[in-house]
Structures are given as C-alpha cells and as structure tokens.
Design goal:
Blueprint: H1 8-18, H2 21-33, E1 37-38, E2 42-43, E3 48-49, H3 51-57, H4 65-75, E4 81-82, H5 85-104, H6 110-129
Helix pairs in contact: 1-4, 1-5, 2-3, 2-5
Length: 156
C-alpha cells in the first residue's frame, strides 16, 4: 500500500526548495514553453511533459526523484493527465518564492548558526567539567514553610 503524506503541499514546497537554483529557473522556463502533465514523464496523447523533464530540456540537468513523487502526491495523480491551472499556479508560486528567498539570502548563514551552536556546546561542556566556574544556583521557597495548625502530641 502506498504511503500518503499528511500535507502533500508542504512536501512539494520542501522538495522545490531542495532543487538547485538553475533547475528552478529552467523549470519555470519549461512550464512556459510546454504543456505540463501529472502522473507520467510524458503523455503522448496530450503532448505534455512533467515539470522535471521540462527543466531538463531547458538546462536544469538535475535528477531528483523526490520531486516526481512529491508532484504526483500533490496532484493526486492516478493516471497521466494535463495539470490544472491551480496545480500549475501552486508550483509556479513555490518556484518563484524559493528563487526570491535565494536572492534575498538567509538572515544568518548556516555556517554562522553552526559556529554559534558549537560555541554554546563548548561553554556548556566547560562549565560541567569545572563546577567551580559555573554560576551558583540558589534555591529558596516561594512560600514560607507552614507549621501544622494543631501541634502533634506524642502518645506515651
């Protein structure tokens, strides 16, 4: 039985973001130049091709099998057919947004984030190795200790 993902749109968006930038540009050009199909690599009856083949024919030489799986899951393809305007619009939106994000660049690079995490881990390891250098933790009660209302009498 085929596994169905909870959110195929999220899976497609993540897969599009994983594509190389040149492949995303080529896929956009290929979508403009060719009819796009779902559920097959090519469809001789309609003359359409899948988005990855369209990218390949326009210079995006990438072999990413997860894109085909995500595309077919998103479109719920059971047989080869032309993609709907909604499906094409969604794919175009994901491609354009991922290219826009790539142009703007992340606010912090992955290398900077990794260096910050390494420094935090090193500081934590140093404080565990040398307990005298660690800050002292003081514990106090939020409420004063309550004495029982009735004193307990000892039974003799």
């Amino acid at each position: 039985m085929k596994r169905r993902y909870r959110n195929p749109a999220q899976r497609l968006r993540t897969t599009v973001e994983a594509l190389p930038e040149r492949t995303r540009h080529a896929m956009l050009r290929g979508m403009d130049a060719n009819p796009i199909v779902v559920g097959a690599y090519t469809d001789p009856k309609s003359g359409g091709i899948c988005p990855m083949l369209a990218a390949h024919r326009n210079g995006g030489r990438t072999n990413l099998g997860t894109f085909a799986l995500a595309w077919d899951a998103f479109t719920d393809a059971r047989r080869p057919r032309l993609a709907t305007h909604r499906e094409l619009g969604t794919l175009r939106f994901y491609l354009e947004m991922s290219l826009l994000d790539a142009e703007q660049g992340p606010t912090t690079s992955l290398a900077q984030a990794a260096a910050r995490i390494r420094a935090e881990r090193a500081a934590a390891a140093a404080s565990v190795a040398d307990p005298d250098s660690a800050e002292e933790i003081r514990v106090r009660r939020l409420r004063p200790h309550r004495r029982p209302r009735h004193p307990v009498t000892a039974i003799a």
